[in-house]
Specification:
The chain is about 100% helix and about 0% strand. The chain has about 120 residues and is mostly helical. It has one domain. The longest helix has about 120 residues. The N and C termini lie far apart (about 170 Å).
Length: about 120
């Protein structure tokens, strides 16, 4: 009877060992799953940071482009205004020249009338 008891204890111990091994394996599996999830979350975090960084770079690039475009538009506008001002001055000078030429012609006409008398 004593030998039967020790084989029963051996079976209980081996059963405990198997159960303990299964539980440890389950814990190990849970740990692996958690580590995998943590790694995935860290990866997603890095991807999000990278995407945000790239988005900020795009915004900065777009702002620089718009600033360059505004600057170029300001230069063009300034040149157009200068050209218009020069054109106005030229027209004023032309008008003054025509006015003086008209006076000269009137004086020539009077001179011709005086000489004709």
């Amino acid at each position: 009877v004593a030998s039967g008891g020790s084989s029963g204890n051996a079976r209980s111990v081996s059963k405990l060992e198997v159960t303990l091994a299964e539980k440890l394996q389950g814990l190990s599996g849970d740990t692996s799953d958690r580590e995998y999830q943590i790694a995935l979350l860290k990866n997603e975090h890095h991807i999000a940071k990278y995407n945000m960084h790239m988005h900020m770079k795009e915004i900065e690039h777009d702002e620089r482009e718009r600033q360059c475009e505004r600057s170029e538009a300001d230069k063009i506008h300034h040149r157009i205004l200068e050209m218009r001002n020069h054109d106005i001055q030229l027209r004023k000078l032309d008008a003054e020249a025509f006015s003086r030429e008209s006076e000269v012609l009137k004086l020539k006409l009077k001179l011709a009338e005086i000489e004709a008398q």
